[in-house]
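tokens incoming
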């Protein structure tokens, strides 16, 4: 399974229409809707913003697509098919279309939206498992050095203690985690 680490984009022109593929990591439909809202504001002059998303929550998979005014099944479904066939999870993919004046027909739209979604393939990353690690503030520097030496992706939050969300492919990489840390 694959996802995106951050928002990514690629674009191409097909018969004078500009297609921009944008992908991001999501964990919920609400998160996707917020992201889509920001895209609609940024690309408010686009003719269409077709999309699809797929995520898992509580061991259940949710997915949805939209043609955003394109003929039924010609935009959102091809995007969703790429997401499913490429084994993407916890992702949103939107294709922004600026109409170039030449109609593509149903099969042309299917190829254009699906093909543009495929442009995001170089940006796929393995799905990583989130591990929550806590330690006292006095040991924060040691923990951060440890995570940096392991070359792990992580985010940190300081409060009464340091809380780190580390993302690992395999939890065994943390087998030698210093004993002043707690894994949740």
């Amino acid at each position: 399974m694959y996802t995106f680490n951050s928002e990514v984009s690629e674009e191409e022109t097909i018969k004078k229409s500009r297609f921009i593929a944008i992908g991001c990591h999501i964990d919920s439909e609400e998160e996707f809707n917020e992201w889509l809202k920001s895209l609609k504001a940024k690309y408010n002059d686009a003719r269409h913003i077709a999309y699809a998303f797929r995520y898992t929550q509580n061991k259940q998979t949710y997915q949805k697509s939209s043609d955003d005014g394109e003929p039924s099944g010609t935009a959102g479904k091809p995007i969703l098919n790429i997401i499913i066939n490429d084994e993407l999870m916890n992702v949103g993919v939107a294709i922004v279309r600026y109409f170039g004046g030449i109609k593509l027909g149903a099969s042309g739209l299917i190829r254009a939206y699906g093909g543009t979604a495929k442009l995001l393939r170089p940006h796929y990353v393995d799905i990583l498992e989130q591990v929550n690690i806590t330690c006292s503030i006095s040991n924060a520097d040691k923990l951060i050095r440890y995570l940096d030496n392991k070359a792990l992706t992580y985010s940190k939050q300081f409060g009464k203690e340091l809380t780190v969300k580390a993302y690992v492919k395999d939890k065994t990489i943390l087998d030698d985690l210093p004993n002043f840390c707690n894994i949740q």
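note: The chain has two domains: 2-126, 129-183.
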